[in-house]
Protein backbone atom coordinates (compact mmCIF):
# COMPACT_ATOMS: atom_id res chain seq x y z
CA UNK A 1 0.00 0.00 0.00
CA UNK A 2 2.83 2.38 0.91
CA UNK A 3 4.61 1.71 -2.39
CA UNK A 4 1.37 2.33 -4.29
CA UNK A 5 0.92 5.72 -2.63
CA UNK A 6 4.47 6.77 -3.40
CA UNK A 7 4.05 5.93 -7.07
CA UNK A 8 0.73 7.73 -7.40
CA UNK A 9 1.08 10.57 -9.89
CA UNK A 10 4.34 9.24 -11.35
CA UNK A 11 4.76 8.79 -15.09
CA UNK A 12 3.76 5.41 -16.46
CA UNK A 13 6.32 3.40 -18.41
CA UNK A 14 6.75 4.79 -21.94
CA UNK A 15 4.99 8.08 -21.07
CA UNK A 16 6.42 11.53 -20.33
CA UNK A 17 3.27 12.79 -18.60
CA UNK A 18 2.26 12.40 -14.98
CA UNK A 19 -1.22 11.45 -13.88
CA UNK A 20 -3.30 14.49 -12.94
CA UNK A 21 -4.66 14.39 -9.41
CA UNK A 22 -7.49 16.95 -9.05
CA UNK A 23 -7.43 18.77 -5.72
CA UNK A 24 -10.23 21.30 -6.26
CA UNK A 25 -12.63 22.35 -9.04
CA UNK A 26 -11.09 24.54 -11.72
CA UNK A 27 -11.87 28.24 -11.45
CA UNK A 28 -10.64 30.99 -13.77
CA UNK A 29 -10.70 33.48 -10.91
CA UNK A 30 -12.61 36.07 -12.93
CA UNK A 31 -15.58 36.05 -10.58
CA UNK A 32 -13.35 36.97 -7.65
CA UNK A 33 -11.83 39.86 -9.59
CA UNK A 34 -14.81 41.30 -11.46
CA UNK A 35 -17.45 42.62 -9.08
CA UNK A 36 -18.93 45.30 -11.32
CA UNK A 37 -21.95 45.21 -13.60
CA UNK A 38 -23.66 41.85 -13.37
CA UNK A 39 -24.99 40.08 -16.44
CA UNK A 40 -28.13 39.41 -14.41
CA UNK A 41 -29.52 42.88 -13.77
CA UNK A 42 -31.52 43.61 -10.65
CA UNK A 43 -34.33 45.87 -11.78
CA UNK A 44 -35.33 46.40 -8.16
CA UNK A 45 -32.65 49.10 -8.31
CA UNK A 46 -34.71 51.16 -10.78
CA UNK A 47 -35.73 54.43 -9.23
CA UNK A 48 -37.10 57.88 -9.95
CA UNK A 49 -34.20 60.32 -9.78
CA UNK A 50 -33.98 62.99 -7.11
CA UNK A 51 -31.43 65.74 -6.49
CA UNK A 52 -28.33 64.51 -4.62
CA UNK A 53 -27.95 65.40 -0.97
CA UNK A 54 -24.16 65.83 -1.13
CA UNK A 55 -21.31 66.40 -3.58
CA UNK A 56 -18.06 65.33 -1.96
CA UNK A 57 -15.58 66.56 -4.56
CA UNK A 58 -13.19 69.52 -4.74
CA UNK A 59 -14.68 72.73 -6.06
CA UNK A 60 -14.43 72.82 -9.84
CA UNK A 61 -13.42 69.18 -10.23
CA UNK A 62 -16.80 68.21 -11.69
CA UNK A 63 -18.98 71.27 -11.04
CA UNK A 64 -18.80 74.76 -9.61
CA UNK A 65 -20.01 75.55 -6.10
CA UNK A 66 -23.28 77.06 -7.36
CA UNK A 67 -24.14 74.23 -9.76
CA UNK A 68 -26.83 72.40 -7.79
CA UNK A 69 -28.34 75.54 -6.31
CA UNK A 70 -28.54 77.24 -9.71
CA UNK A 71 -30.41 74.34 -11.31
CA UNK A 72 -32.78 73.52 -8.47
CA UNK A 73 -34.10 70.14 -7.38
CA UNK A 74 -36.58 69.80 -10.24
CA UNK A 75 -33.70 69.63 -12.72
CA UNK A 76 -32.67 66.25 -11.33
CA UNK A 77 -36.08 64.57 -11.13
CA UNK A 78 -36.70 61.93 -13.75
CA UNK A 79 -38.96 58.88 -13.80
CA UNK A 80 -38.05 55.60 -15.50
CA UNK A 81 -40.35 54.31 -18.23
CA UNK A 82 -39.13 50.77 -18.72
CA UNK A 83 -42.57 49.31 -19.40
CA UNK A 84 -43.27 51.92 -22.10
CA UNK A 85 -40.22 50.98 -24.16
CA UNK A 86 -40.75 50.03 -27.81
CA UNK A 87 -38.14 48.51 -30.09
CA UNK A 88 -38.31 51.33 -32.64
CA UNK A 89 -37.22 53.78 -29.95
CA UNK A 90 -33.64 52.58 -30.31
CA UNK A 91 -33.35 54.98 -33.28
CA UNK A 92 -34.40 57.90 -31.08
CA UNK A 93 -32.80 59.65 -28.13
CA UNK A 94 -34.08 59.21 -24.59
CA UNK A 95 -34.05 61.58 -21.64
CA UNK A 96 -31.97 60.39 -18.70
CA UNK A 97 -32.28 63.61 -16.70
CA UNK A 98 -34.30 66.69 -17.67
CA UNK A 99 -31.10 68.21 -19.06
CA UNK A 100 -29.33 65.04 -20.28
CA UNK A 101 -30.24 62.83 -23.24
CA UNK A 102 -28.48 59.94 -24.98
CA UNK A 103 -29.06 58.50 -28.42
CA UNK A 104 -27.57 57.51 -31.79
CA UNK A 105 -26.05 59.91 -34.30
CA UNK A 106 -29.31 59.90 -36.26
CA UNK A 107 -31.10 61.53 -33.32
CA UNK A 108 -28.46 64.27 -33.09
CA UNK A 109 -28.98 65.00 -36.79
CA UNK A 110 -32.77 65.11 -36.44
CA UNK A 111 -33.50 68.82 -36.82
CA UNK A 112 -37.09 68.53 -35.63
CA UNK A 113 -36.17 66.51 -32.54
CA UNK A 114 -33.36 68.85 -31.52
CA UNK A 115 -35.66 71.85 -31.87
CA UNK A 116 -38.65 70.23 -30.18
CA UNK A 117 -36.67 69.07 -27.13
CA UNK A 118 -34.77 72.34 -26.79
CA UNK A 119 -31.32 70.75 -27.05
CA UNK A 120 -28.54 73.32 -26.68
CA UNK A 121 -25.42 71.14 -26.91
CA UNK A 122 -24.70 68.13 -29.13
CA UNK A 123 -21.81 66.08 -27.74
CA UNK A 124 -20.43 63.22 -29.82
CA UNK A 125 -18.24 60.40 -28.46
CA UNK A 126 -16.24 58.77 -31.26
CA UNK A 127 -13.08 56.92 -32.22
CA UNK A 128 -9.93 58.34 -33.89
CA UNK A 129 -10.26 56.90 -37.40
CA UNK A 130 -11.15 59.24 -40.30
CA UNK A 131 -14.48 57.56 -41.03
CA UNK A 132 -15.56 58.03 -37.40
CA UNK A 133 -15.74 61.76 -38.04
CA UNK A 134 -18.31 61.12 -40.78
CA UNK A 135 -20.36 58.57 -38.87
CA UNK A 136 -20.46 60.35 -35.50
CA UNK A 137 -20.97 64.01 -36.31
CA UNK A 138 -23.82 66.49 -35.86
CA UNK A 139 -22.02 69.80 -36.39
CA UNK A 140 -24.23 70.69 -39.34
CA UNK A 141 -27.40 70.30 -37.29
CA UNK A 142 -25.91 72.40 -34.50
CA UNK A 143 -24.90 75.14 -36.94
CA UNK A 144 -28.37 75.24 -38.48
CA UNK A 145 -29.93 75.73 -35.04
CA UNK A 146 -27.22 78.04 -33.73
CA UNK A 147 -26.39 75.77 -30.80
CA UNK A 148 -23.14 74.32 -29.49
CA UNK A 149 -21.55 71.07 -30.60
CA UNK A 150 -18.47 69.15 -29.59
CA UNK A 151 -16.75 65.82 -30.10
CA UNK A 152 -14.67 63.74 -27.72
CA UNK A 153 -12.22 61.44 -29.50
CA UNK A 154 -11.21 58.30 -27.60
CA UNK A 155 -8.63 55.85 -28.94
CA UNK A 156 -10.24 52.90 -27.17
CA UNK A 157 -12.54 52.18 -24.27
CA UNK A 158 -9.71 52.40 -21.74
CA UNK A 159 -8.84 55.84 -23.08
CA UNK A 160 -12.31 56.97 -22.01
CA UNK A 161 -11.39 56.79 -18.31
CA UNK A 162 -9.13 59.84 -18.34
CA UNK A 163 -11.67 61.81 -20.39
CA UNK A 164 -14.68 61.25 -18.12
CA UNK A 165 -13.99 64.01 -15.54
CA UNK A 166 -13.49 66.57 -18.33
CA UNK A 167 -16.65 65.40 -20.12
CA UNK A 168 -18.75 65.63 -16.95
CA UNK A 169 -17.32 69.02 -16.05
CA UNK A 170 -17.99 70.29 -19.58
CA UNK A 171 -21.62 69.16 -19.40
CA UNK A 172 -22.07 70.85 -16.03
CA UNK A 173 -20.46 74.09 -17.16
CA UNK A 174 -22.84 74.19 -20.12
CA UNK A 175 -26.04 73.65 -18.15
CA UNK A 176 -25.06 75.57 -15.01
CA UNK A 177 -27.23 78.65 -14.45
CA UNK A 178 -24.88 80.49 -12.10
CA UNK A 179 -23.72 83.99 -13.14
CA UNK A 180 -20.28 82.67 -14.09
CA UNK A 181 -21.64 80.16 -16.61
CA UNK A 182 -25.01 81.56 -17.63
CA UNK A 183 -24.76 83.46 -20.92
CA UNK A 184 -28.43 84.03 -21.68
CA UNK A 185 -28.26 81.82 -24.77
CA UNK A 186 -31.35 80.50 -26.49
CA UNK A 187 -32.42 76.96 -27.22
CA UNK A 188 -32.93 75.54 -30.70
CA UNK A 189 -36.63 76.36 -30.33
CA UNK A 190 -35.84 80.01 -29.63
CA UNK A 191 -36.79 79.98 -25.94
CA UNK A 192 -34.80 82.13 -23.56
CA UNK A 193 -32.81 79.99 -21.14
CA UNK A 194 -33.73 82.13 -18.14
CA UNK A 195 -37.41 81.30 -18.57
CA UNK A 196 -36.69 77.55 -18.64
CA UNK A 197 -36.47 74.86 -19.92
CA UNK A 198 -32.88 74.58 -18.86
CA UNK A 199 -30.04 74.03 -21.26
CA UNK A 200 -29.99 70.46 -22.47
CA UNK A 201 -27.19 68.17 -23.64
CA UNK A 202 -27.57 65.27 -26.06
CA UNK A 203 -24.71 62.78 -25.80
CA UNK A 204 -24.50 60.56 -28.85
CA UNK A 205 -22.38 57.84 -30.42
CA UNK A 206 -22.98 55.75 -33.53
CA UNK A 207 -25.66 53.53 -31.98
CA UNK A 208 -26.42 55.36 -28.75
CA UNK A 209 -25.99 52.06 -26.92
CA UNK A 210 -22.35 51.95 -25.86
CA UNK A 211 -20.00 54.92 -25.35
CA UNK A 212 -22.71 57.57 -25.02
CA UNK A 213 -24.51 55.30 -22.55
CA UNK A 214 -21.26 54.77 -20.63
CA UNK A 215 -20.81 58.54 -20.30
CA UNK A 216 -24.37 58.90 -18.99
CA UNK A 217 -23.74 56.10 -16.48
CA UNK A 218 -20.53 57.79 -15.34
CA UNK A 219 -22.46 61.05 -14.97
CA UNK A 220 -24.98 59.44 -12.61
CA UNK A 221 -22.15 57.88 -10.62
CA UNK A 222 -20.39 61.22 -10.23
CA UNK A 223 -23.33 63.59 -9.76
CA UNK A 224 -26.08 61.45 -8.17
CA UNK A 225 -23.61 59.34 -6.14
CA UNK A 226 -24.79 56.02 -7.60
CA UNK A 227 -22.69 52.88 -7.66
CA UNK A 228 -21.92 51.42 -11.08
CA UNK A 229 -24.64 48.77 -10.97
CA UNK A 230 -27.41 51.17 -9.95
CA UNK A 231 -26.31 53.79 -12.48
CA UNK A 232 -26.24 51.25 -15.31
CA UNK A 233 -29.68 49.85 -14.53
CA UNK A 234 -31.19 53.32 -14.33
CA UNK A 235 -29.75 54.37 -17.68
CA UNK A 236 -30.92 51.11 -19.24
CA UNK A 237 -34.31 51.62 -17.58
CA UNK A 238 -34.67 54.74 -19.72
CA UNK A 239 -32.97 53.42 -22.86
CA UNK A 240 -33.51 49.68 -22.83
CA UNK A 241 -31.27 48.93 -25.83
CA UNK A 242 -28.08 50.00 -24.02
CA UNK A 243 -25.57 47.16 -24.28
CA UNK A 244 -22.09 47.73 -22.88
CA UNK A 245 -19.16 45.48 -23.83
CA UNK A 246 -17.06 44.09 -21.00
CA UNK A 247 -14.32 46.63 -21.69
CA UNK A 248 -16.69 49.54 -20.99
CA UNK A 249 -18.03 47.83 -17.88
CA UNK A 250 -14.50 47.65 -16.53
CA UNK A 251 -13.92 51.29 -17.44
CA UNK A 252 -16.92 52.26 -15.32
CA UNK A 253 -15.78 50.03 -12.47
CA UNK A 254 -12.39 51.75 -12.51
CA UNK A 255 -14.04 55.16 -12.67
CA UNK A 256 -16.12 54.22 -9.65
CA UNK A 257 -12.93 53.45 -7.72
CA UNK A 258 -11.48 56.83 -8.71
CA UNK A 259 -14.61 58.62 -7.51
CA UNK A 260 -14.58 56.70 -4.22
CA UNK A 261 -10.94 57.67 -3.62
CA UNK A 262 -11.72 61.33 -4.34
CA UNK A 263 -14.64 61.28 -1.92
CA UNK A 264 -12.53 59.65 0.79
CA UNK A 265 -9.88 62.35 0.46
CA UNK A 266 -12.47 65.12 0.76
CA UNK A 267 -14.09 63.51 3.81
CA UNK A 268 -10.70 63.09 5.46
CA UNK A 269 -10.03 66.81 5.03
CA UNK A 270 -13.31 67.85 6.68
From TrEMBL:
Annotated Gene3D superfamilies: Protein tyrosine phosphatase superfamily (3.90.190.10)
Domain called Tyrosine-protein phosphatase: residue spans: 92-258
GO molecular function: catalytic activity, acting on a protein; F-box domain binding
Gene Ontology biological-process entries: negative regulation of SCF-dependent proteasomal ubiquitin-dependent catabolic process; regulation of ERK1 and ERK2 cascade
Source taxon at top rank: Eukaryota
One GO cellular component term noted in the UniProt record for this chain: cytoplasm
Entry-linked InterPro entries: Dual-sp_phosphatase_cat-dom, Prot-tyrosine_phosphatase-like, STYX-Interacting_Phosphatase, TYR_PHOSPHATASE_DUAL_dom
Sequence similarity: Belongs to the protein-tyrosine phosphatase family. Non-receptor class subfamily.
Protein name: Dual specificity protein phosphatase 3, FMI2 protein
Organism encoding this protein: Ajellomyces capsulatus (Darling's disease fungus)
